Batch of 2 targets.
Target 1
Amino acid sequence: METIYLDHAATTPIDPAVIEAMLPLMSDVFGNPSSVHSYGRKARQSLDEARRTIAQRIHAHEKEVTFTSGGTEADNLALIGTALANKDRGKHIITTVQEHHATLHTAEYLEREGFEVTYLPVDENGVIKVEDVREALTAETILVSVMYVNNETGTIQPIQEIGDLLKEHQAYFHTDAVQAFGLLEIDVKKMGIDLLTATAHKINGPKGIGLLYAGKHVKLQPLAYGGEQERKRRPGTENVANVVGFQKAVELRTNKEAEYRNLYQAYKELFIQTLQEEGIAFEVNGKLENTIPSIINISFPHMNVESLLVNFDLNGVAASSGSACTAGSIEPSHVLVAMYGANNERTKNAVRFSFGSANTKENVKEAAERVAGIVKRMMKNR
Amino acid sequence: MNDNQHIRVVVGMSGGVDSSVAALLLKQQGYDVVGIFMKNWDDTDENGVCTATEDFDDVVRVCNQLDIPYYAVNFEKQYWDKVFTYFLDEYKAGRTPNPDVMCNKEIKFKAFMDHAMSLGADFLATGHYAQIREQDGKVEMLRGVDQNKDQTYFLNQLSADVLKKVMFPLGHLPKKEVRKIALEHNLVTATKKDSTGICFIGERNFKEFLSNYLPAQPGEMQTFDGVVKGKHDGLMYYTLGQRQGLGIGGPGEPWFVVGKNLQKNILYVEQGYTHDSLYSDGLIATDVNWINPVESAPSFSCTAKFRYRQADSEVKVEVLEDGNVRVIFREQQRAITPGQAVVFYQDDVCLGGGTIDKVFKDGSFLDYVG
């Protein structure tokens, strides 16, 4: 049985061209970019070029890009780094209830360290209100962190509007754009974004490499201390091969965002259409028109997400639940709870399917048919 | 490869050595093995580490060593409703419950069995030390070969219908051999300590645990003649025949718990291990389960266990009209404890069992619990 991958929001396969681009950095160009000799310079050259290419994609200056180990570290650096460096201007931070845990748990840590954090709610479509941000702002607010696209539902947040609002306020604006980067066009200057998180492995790049964009004006304190790398914001010998892989992944998508969106939108529509044709009951979580094409979150009434996901996997369909369910502790997804309330059945039977490079029209349709077949069988055996 | 590859066996994996080896043996026999970890209780140890997370981590490692898929399932709610509530209710009634028997009946071989079947399983397997024999269409449960490890006592509430869909891959092995197999295959759980006691209490102080859920009502310790011997911490903390923790000094033989009076909140104590009041010659059991219908009912002879790891005793069983049983002991028994299971055997075949409800001697009920 062919297994079908529908979990691109978790991670993606590395594009062969990316692997190709990385190989020389693991063999010939092995130098340490900080070294004073030719080996070092060659590595530094690759590093600089990659940084420039990637920075351009979000309309940033190359000196504004700090490479990290991934999205989680970038979120930590954004929140902790700005909080510690700007606490003389205030100790208030605004974020939302539906952020990724890399943001939420960092915010909770800062609360324990004496910062005050406001968690804004979302409406039933999973969108935050710009008005709520305005009302939450105080003279003490130093940071507003709102994710660009929610990783569980794919819901797109009003980033431009929040950016506009904050142009008149001292607070920095951070957005975790991990699910948006490479699929939505991003212009940090136009959008009023001061800090932005992105990662390579969601766009067919390698794991273990991400970035934090921080505008020139942003005061940021590092999380680690050591050498002069990354302008002291992230010391440690640079992961040059991964950075170059990141660069290649970005290049492969350059000016092709719309093309990818159309392709994934077609997959999404085909998936929904097939489920409808199969006649099974399901509900889409979030407002379809306002979600990114690559992600769909579906609740299957009367089903139990644990049985669903295991059955999908045993039948070769790889999907996930937004909720962390390690060791059998099923916490209902905090995102769906924020949208529908803790007692809504939708929070307990939701599955996220996410489309990408491992898909074809054929395997998306096949996956939907398998999903429908399992749901039908489970309905019968209830 | 053989036909077993088309037979899906879901193995309940706890992260211990027994279920690890059960999965290993099934994999070696060529079955389509799926490992599933059950989370029934939310608990963190003194370092703030969730014990279930640690155990699941071992399940993951073992399954990866065996190259089988692994998942987790949560039955905390069912466990609370069906096992823990019963556990507390029994203590409130002054009895000594057996949550492992209830867990097997309601969770492992019911809720978990249903889950396994919903995943297309043909069989559910566990690392219990018990054997299943199928003969002329009749399915029976036999004691595990390792007499010291035999767990049929805890499995007495299963039915032949359930056992048809069950495998006990360790039933024919001594525990020592299981450890050896685990070591030979470098399983990460090979040297892991066996879990002791009741799963949700673990290594913790039992008194302290129980006091989180039931208010303790201290009262007096008395002899049956009304002589006050000291204070007790709450009747639920004591079980029949118990010697430890009474704190009664003085000359003569040690003191033992011989009964409880719930209404007056009195704990009865008497002197001597073989004190007459601890002995009985029969019992009434409720919630009786027969693995297969009993052919010789309403009255037959067999052997019985009244506690885990106790030698069998010869008994006569009378099946009563309401389905309960009267069990007459061939020889007097010490400290038969209401709430515990009585389990019946014909040689190595486990016939079933029930919950000890009342205990009698010379034709009249003992007020062990009153």
Note: The longest strand of chain A covers residues 92-96.
Target 2
Amino acid sequence: MKSIVLYLQVHQPYRLRPYTVFETGEAHDYFTNPVYETDANNEFIFQKVADKSYRPMNALLLKLLNDHPEFKLSLSISGVFLEQAQQWAPDVIDSFRQLVATGRVELLSETYYHSLAFFYDRREFEQQVQLHRDKIREVFGVETKVFRNTELAYNDEVGQWAEANGFAGVLAEGWDPILEWRSPNYVYRPQNTTNTGLLLKNYQLSDDIAFRFSDQAWTEWPLKTDKYRTWVADALAGNNQLVNLFMDYETFGEHQWKDTGIFDFFEDFVASYDNDSEISFATTSEALAIHQPVGELPVAHTTTWADSERDLSAWTGNNLQQEALKYLYAMQNDVLRSGDAGLIADWRKLQTSDHVYYMSTKWLKDGDVHAYFSPYDSPYDAFLYFMNVIRDLRWRVMQHHHIGGLHG
Amino acid sequence: MKILMLGWELPPHNSGGLGVACYHMSKALAVNGADIDFVVPYEAEHPSVDFMRIHSATSVFPLERYGMGAYDSNMLLERNLSEADANDLKDMRGVQKRYVEFVENLVKTVKPEAIHAHDWLTMEAGVRAKQLTNAPLIVHVHATEFDRSGELNGNPVVHEIEQQALLMADRIIAVSNITKSIIVHRYNIPADKVEVVYNAIDTTSFDPYDYDYQTYRYLEALKHEGYTVAATVTRFTVQKGLTHFVRAAARACEKYDKLVFLLAGDGEQRDELIQLGADLGISDKLFFTGFVRGKKWRDSYSVADIFVMSSVSEPFGLTALEAAHHDSALMISKQSGVGEVLKNIYRFDFWDVDTLADQLIAIASSPSLARELRQNVKKEYDTISWNDVAHQCLDIYTKMKNGAIV
């Protein structure tokens, strides 16, 4: 039996409000925008996306799970998403619970704060993975078994870390330069591991849905189920084991609006595999159990699922981003030893990768995507607000330790 | 003596120092007996002006469209006034044409004994008024196109307007020797036609004011920890030389860590400066406020220990006097005119990043030096008054009226 492994990423950051130098040392409510109807108001955005995506898509997923016993999928839900949902949309939490309760929706492990901490501080990273594990257990009563790092950021060390920490597998981008002559449609093994699997995103088929589905300039538009099924079948021809369709959950209803037909397409696609004798849906854990790794895959340089470079440059590519992250992680010890839960949580919320993503100054096609997701007028605004918040955190650290140590 | 004063803005409808200078100069002239008709290109209330008649050349709201254009001539369409549409008041040339037409009408009833035109914006109207009235034309140069465009040549249309008016003028007032030198060398005007009259500062015009420590609470906390705040309060344009300031900031921080830099204001160069700060790795040393006015604007001066004017070309630079009034030590580029009237300041070539860094460290690391500079410069600017400026202007009017050969 061959597998379709569908994994959807569920995440919303705590965006910073426009936070000025005049508020530094005065106000600590960086994540609360007094104006409701703005793209820098987290509750406003959450409700908007909930209406367009989380509510209708969860209803559809539940219906599909009920109607089609073969249907399965995996979700990775960030801790900061769960916090916001609990605060503003408990019904959304309930609908995710209903999905998980079917037993055919696997929840993946990630960092609670959707951070890039793996590349900055291993201890901080592990704490955030643990926080996420605890949160998933608390909300859903299940354990996570497969790991996916923020933005699918992966290298050999991530794979080895996952094995050392008991994960059955890790997710990564099936990017050609790391695959070379290989196909993404097999299970691999991270370099120098024996016990953990590597699932690689088929970016062609994933992005056909996530990015190109409603693109009328695309030669394949409009995309219908029959055509897409043929592509999936082609990808699974010969000895190929599985197709990994990895994408943002918000593809359904938010990135691709309802009127593009995305929900209907998805429903048709899932239904079309009823009683299929060769291909069926599998969760990540099942796929790793069913299919034997065909070999080790070395990934020396970090890959991600973003931008045409598929590296970390969307988050750490320019000097603004590097500055911001430098100052952020430089305060780690002082923040943690304060023992102040609110301060630590705020500091960790700043680690959410979206903040530096908004500071990206890439142009052309990628820049468009960055601008689409950013609540700010420019990457320079994003940077200034972030820097002012960093300073306020320093202020709070100083208040806490009752000693000097403010920096510029 | 009846004076026709041609200006572009007056407080509170000003976008910069030109309006402030025109206001105080006119007020002091009125006190000394001048009878002034002052033309502005917009229509608005001027509650603090009861010493002269203000005429509105158009009914446009101040600064509605063209206001910032008083300083930024890049946006100007290149064409003669005769081709401009006087009905298009969103276009600078359209407004200027209307301004000229208004002045043509005005001089049918108002018979000036001298015409005093401020900067290129009103120069065409000044020349026209001189043709119609035979009154002497005094062109007052607060900034030339060379200043506004930084190290570039600027807009050729603006340059041409300036050139014509400087040739036609009976007398030229420059706000500093730097400006006089530009007029002489770049516009080929005989030096003896140009007189230097420095701007002054009227500290009594500042409302009673208490510095609010909460405005820059974080900076105040840094100062408490021994940090020195070096500030600039300005428009972020190439004229202001701020990239040199940021580079000097980075150089200074290599040697002396307890320095931070406040960049108060906004402008087209903001993103470039933020980027430069990040490139140099000193982003957390730079504080960007955005556009400030009112109390926050004054607090920006007050929080500063050092005020830096790094202008590439600054005809005068009134903000330096404002900073001195608010107790800052001054560092002024040699290319800024205000430096000619002050002795108790540091000066540097705008491009000389090392010297600028050196001076920053010197003041920051020596409280007594900082105190000396602050106290002494305050005594200096107190002696410069708008009353003196008025006397110099009246002298010029009188000589011109009497047909003096200059």
Note: Chain A has 17 helices and ten strands.
